[in-house]
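Exam revision sheet. Question 4 asks you to relate a sequence to its structure. Input first:
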Amino acid sequence: MASFIDNNFLLGTDAARNLFHNDAAGLPIIDYHCHLSPQQIAENVQFRDITQLWLVDGHSGDHYKWRAMRANGVPEEYITGGTRSAWETFEKWAETMPYAMRNPLYHWSHLELKRVFGIDKTLSPSTAREIFEECNAKLATDEYRGQALIRKFNVEAVCTTDDPADDLRWHRMIAGHPFGTKVLPAWRPDKAMAVTDPESYRTYIGKLGEAAGMEIRTYADLCDALSRRHDFFAQAGCRLSDHGLDTFHCADYTEREIEGIFAKVMNGSVPSPEETDKFCSAFLYDQAVMDAEANWAQQFHVGPIRNNDPRMFKLVGPDTGYDSINDLPVAEAGNRFFGRLASEGRLAKTILYCLNPKDNEVMVSMAYNFNDGSCPGKMQFGSGWWFLDQENGMRRQIDCLSSLGLLSRFVGMLTDSRSFISYPRHEYFRRILCDVIGSDLESGRLPESEMPRIRQMVRDISYFNAKNYFSF
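Answer key, structure tokens:
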């Protein structure tokens, strides 16, 4: 019986072990999509304790862990309630951990304890106090401040997720005081498309106009303001955008219709579903054109249904663990959307992510409709995301991409995390990748005579493809 998370964890064959230890393990990390706080990076945050770092932070929290704790019967006062001590919240997480076996949190949490803190103990109620105190003692040292935690994992570049109205002051501060990792903004304009809540939308448009130095009265003004901010982000080193969508939008519309819908929303009226679809179709098209003209890459994260518990949404707000997988169709509108851009020569490098595993093959086949030979992997299927960011989801993503596309051109893993210690997920992915390829070598599905090419494929997916694709 193998030891838990030993040196050959997840590596089932000699070939897999060889590939991981000799080719994948030591490469730098390019984290091209995450939700780290630029302010915390700039200020070189020192966490008070492991609870703040791991579970509940003033900037954010770990909704994966929150969902597990709730499922284990932990009351909200220990999670987002803010009324319990750091130890009491950590103790409830330790009580939950033995029940999380076979959940990815069990692997991730113990990988983080081992790789970040050097703690080779299983977290449980009996070990909770000693682990809590050992982590806290280390977090009190400079070696465990925010920037040191990023450097610890040889992270070459980080792309945060930033609103067009953001002044990017924290990115400028980081650039003025470099610490060995490039920290760049990424463009996330979702709020500028969120017309279904007119009151919030009008407030946001005022904020965006102030950032752009203009008054936004029309949809044309909105595009002008976003173009100005797009240029501002580019000057700060931004090279990719990201869009969070329930599904793709590609309805027919006229400029007059879009101006009318914008005016309606700004006057406080809720648009109809048809009007919302038209507006989103125009908005996404105009954003994609901006990205293509700026030679950015664009990402589309498609498929969540959010804030599903109205009672808890009122109590604790959004992004607190009450989102789930949606099942809207994506193929027809997605193909129309990218087809229009391709036919006009306005299609940027694009990465597609799905949250519903039913869409894996759909997304790969969609992406590969629009590769045009201009660069390797121009349109591609991204890594397992959110609920699919786990061993089975990663293996399925690798298999789907291998079956319908070119795995060798894949830009690899990202953290998509708010945590400074999520970087062992790159190790997790690289181990799984090497296990898949190693199994193919051992079974004769791949030729041993091609080992130099196979080893380079592992290195490319782990690091070099992202480095070449994004050109940070």
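Marking note for examiners. Residues 128 and 156 are 33 Å apart (CA to CA).
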